[in-house]
Structure prediction request, 137 residues.
Amino acid sequence: MTPSGIATDLLQRHPALPPENTLAMPIQSLRKPVPGFAPERPPLTRPYAWRRMAVIGGTIFLTALAAAEMYRALAVMGLTPMEAAILVLFVSLFAWIAFSFINALAGFLCMIRGYDGPLRIPAKGPIRPYGPSPSHL
Prediction:
């Protein structure tokens, strides 16, 4: 038996994907709420505002420190347009990373302190209950 024949035989006995099982997916409006489901929103009280300001303030603080250090490194003999562009990109990307870090740190501290409030994790993309169609195989 040739190597390709062995691979074909193995794929027939042990398929890489489970058998196709399509489910009914009715068309739904994204503008109307789902009947019987009302998402719970936390109240906008002072503790929530304090937490948000701590996260945003921490992000701004870390970004300002990093931007000052990067400026000192780039502006040895003046700031050229290329160096200014690099600095702008660095600051924007560092702010993104700093926000994620401070947000994760705040979540860790809440976990350590025993916060038992609602933890909601939103889906950032479509969730499909079926595998790829045969056209993708």
Notes: The chain has three helices and no strands. The mean pLDDT is 79. The CA atoms of residues 63 and 95 lie 5 Å apart. Residues 45-115 form one domain.
